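**Reference record**
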Amino acid sequence: MIIKGRIWKFGDNVSTDDIIPGKYKFKTIDLNELSRHVMEGIDPIFSSKVKPGDIIVAGRNFGCGSSREHAPLAIKHAGISAIIAKSFARIFFRNAINIGLPVIEEKELYDNIETGDIIEISLSDGKIYT
Protein backbone atom coordinates (compact mmCIF):
# COMPACT_ATOMS: atom_id res chain seq x y z
CA MET A 1 0.00 0.00 0.00
CA ILE A 2 1.26 3.48 -0.92
CA ILE A 3 0.29 6.61 0.99
CA LYS A 4 0.92 9.93 -0.73
CA GLY A 5 0.26 13.20 1.02
CA ARG A 6 1.21 16.72 1.96
CA ILE A 7 3.44 17.22 4.99
CA TRP A 8 2.59 19.07 8.17
CA LYS A 9 5.80 19.51 10.15
CA PHE A 10 5.82 19.82 13.95
CA GLY A 11 8.68 19.96 16.45
CA ASP A 12 9.74 17.90 19.46
CA ASN A 13 7.58 16.94 22.43
CA VAL A 14 4.17 17.41 20.84
CA SER A 15 1.94 16.31 23.72
CA THR A 16 -1.51 14.80 23.72
CA ASP A 17 -2.69 18.13 25.16
CA ASP A 18 -1.28 19.88 22.08
CA ILE A 19 -3.01 17.32 19.85
CA ILE A 20 -6.40 17.51 21.56
CA PRO A 21 -6.69 19.88 24.53
CA GLY A 22 -8.21 18.31 27.63
CA LYS A 23 -11.03 20.85 27.75
CA TYR A 24 -12.54 19.16 24.67
CA LYS A 25 -11.83 15.59 25.71
CA PHE A 26 -13.96 16.05 28.80
CA LYS A 27 -16.83 17.72 26.91
CA THR A 28 -17.43 15.14 24.20
CA ILE A 29 -16.34 11.85 22.70
CA ASP A 30 -17.78 12.79 19.31
CA LEU A 31 -14.89 12.39 16.85
CA ASN A 32 -16.38 14.95 14.45
CA GLU A 33 -16.20 17.53 17.21
CA LEU A 34 -12.80 16.45 18.51
CA SER A 35 -11.24 16.45 15.04
CA ARG A 36 -12.17 20.15 14.70
CA HIS A 37 -9.68 20.83 17.51
CA VAL A 38 -6.77 18.61 16.39
CA MET A 39 -3.36 20.22 16.95
CA GLU A 40 -5.11 23.29 18.34
CA GLY A 41 -2.49 23.60 21.07
CA ILE A 42 0.15 24.35 18.40
CA ASP A 43 -1.79 25.63 15.37
CA PRO A 44 -5.29 26.87 16.26
CA ILE A 45 -6.50 26.67 12.63
CA PHE A 46 -4.80 23.39 11.69
CA SER A 47 -8.08 21.47 11.41
CA SER A 48 -9.40 23.94 8.83
CA LYS A 49 -6.30 23.49 6.65
CA VAL A 50 -5.66 19.74 6.85
CA LYS A 51 -6.91 17.59 3.96
CA PRO A 52 -7.61 13.85 3.82
CA GLY A 53 -4.40 11.98 3.12
CA ASP A 54 -2.07 14.56 4.67
CA ILE A 55 0.87 13.31 6.74
CA ILE A 56 2.34 14.62 9.99
CA VAL A 57 6.14 14.66 10.31
CA ALA A 58 7.43 15.47 13.77
CA GLY A 59 10.53 15.55 15.92
CA ARG A 60 11.20 13.53 19.04
CA ASN A 61 8.68 12.20 21.57
CA PHE A 62 5.49 12.79 19.54
CA GLY A 63 2.38 12.10 21.61
CA CYS A 64 3.98 12.52 25.03
CA GLY A 65 1.94 13.35 28.10
CA SER A 66 -1.25 11.65 29.19
CA SER A 67 -2.42 8.38 27.71
CA ARG A 68 -5.31 10.16 26.03
CA GLU A 69 -6.70 7.64 23.52
CA HIS A 70 -8.64 10.43 21.83
CA ALA A 71 -5.42 11.98 20.46
CA PRO A 72 -4.66 9.42 17.72
CA LEU A 73 -8.37 8.90 17.06
CA ALA A 74 -8.91 12.62 16.45
CA ILE A 75 -5.82 12.83 14.22
CA LYS A 76 -7.03 9.92 12.10
CA HIS A 77 -10.58 11.27 11.96
CA ALA A 78 -9.25 14.67 10.80
CA GLY A 79 -7.85 12.92 7.72
CA ILE A 80 -4.20 12.39 8.60
CA SER A 81 -3.08 9.20 6.83
CA ALA A 82 0.21 8.61 8.71
CA ILE A 83 2.61 10.08 11.23
CA ILE A 84 6.38 9.97 10.83
CA ALA A 85 8.47 11.10 13.79
CA LYS A 86 12.01 10.84 15.09
CA SER A 87 10.45 9.05 18.07
CA PHE A 88 7.07 8.52 19.71
CA ALA A 89 5.82 8.30 23.25
CA ARG A 90 5.24 4.56 23.66
CA ILE A 91 1.58 4.76 24.73
CA PHE A 92 0.71 7.04 21.79
CA PHE A 93 2.55 4.68 19.43
CA ARG A 94 0.54 1.69 20.71
CA ASN A 95 -2.76 3.59 20.63
CA ALA A 96 -2.13 4.63 17.00
CA ILE A 97 -1.31 1.07 15.96
CA ASN A 98 -4.42 -0.19 17.75
CA ILE A 99 -6.65 2.05 15.60
CA GLY A 100 -4.80 1.40 12.33
CA LEU A 101 -3.04 4.77 12.04
CA PRO A 102 0.39 4.17 10.48
CA VAL A 103 3.22 5.48 12.66
CA ILE A 104 6.82 5.32 11.48
CA GLU A 105 9.97 6.17 13.40
CA GLU A 106 12.47 7.77 11.02
CA LYS A 107 15.24 10.11 12.14
CA GLU A 108 16.59 11.57 8.86
CA LEU A 109 13.45 12.80 7.07
CA TYR A 110 12.63 15.61 9.52
CA ASP A 111 15.66 17.69 8.62
CA ASN A 112 15.07 17.34 4.88
CA ILE A 113 11.41 18.33 4.45
CA GLU A 114 9.11 21.27 5.15
CA THR A 115 5.40 21.78 5.62
CA GLY A 116 3.72 21.56 2.22
CA ASP A 117 6.15 19.06 0.70
CA ILE A 118 4.63 15.93 -0.82
CA ILE A 119 5.96 12.50 0.11
CA GLU A 120 5.05 8.88 -0.55
CA ILE A 121 5.23 6.08 1.99
CA SER A 122 5.30 2.44 0.96
CA LEU A 123 3.76 0.60 3.89
CA SER A 124 4.71 -2.76 2.41
CA ASP A 125 8.46 -2.12 2.59
CA GLY A 126 8.63 0.90 4.92
CA LYS A 127 10.32 3.17 2.40
CA ILE A 128 9.67 6.91 2.24
CA TYR A 129 10.04 8.80 -1.05
CA THR A 130 10.46 12.58 -1.15
